[in-house]
Amino acid sequence: MRYLIIALVVFNLLSVDANSQTGTIKGKVTTRDGEPAGQVNVIIGELKMGIVTPVTGEFLFKNIKPGIYTVIISYSGLQSQRRTVAVKATDTAAVDVTPF
Hints:
- The protein is an alpha+beta fold.
- The protein has a single domain (22-97), classed as Sandwich (Immunoglobulin-like), CATH 2.60.40.1120.
- It has 1 helix and 7 strands; from the N terminus they run αβββββββ.
- The strands form 2 sheets. Strands 3-2-5-6 form a 4-stranded antiparallel sheet, with no helix packed on it. It has a 3-stranded mixed sheet with strand order 4-1-7, with no helix packed on it.
- A hairpin with a 4-residue loop joins strand 2 (41-44) and strand 3 (49-52).
- The longest helix is centred in the N-terminal third of the chain and has 18 residues, at 2-19.
C-alpha cells in the first residue's frame, strides 16, 4: 500500500510538471476599420488545429508545446495571411491581425 501511495504522488508530480511546459497563443482579428472580425479561420499549420473566431474576433490556443509555429488566418474569398510565432513554456504569444 505504501508503494502505491508513493507511486501515485510521483505520477501526480510528473503530470503537473508536464502541463507547466506548454504555452498559449492568443490574439484578435480585426477589420481595417478596427472592428472585430468574426467567422475567420485561424489555424496552427504545424499542429493541424484551428478555430473559427466568434463575433469578438478573439482566439485562444492553450497547451501548445514550445516551438516556432505558423498561424494561418483565412476568410472565404480573401487571401490567407501567415504569421510566425514563437511559443515559450508558461508564456503567451500574441498574434493580432488586421487582414480585411
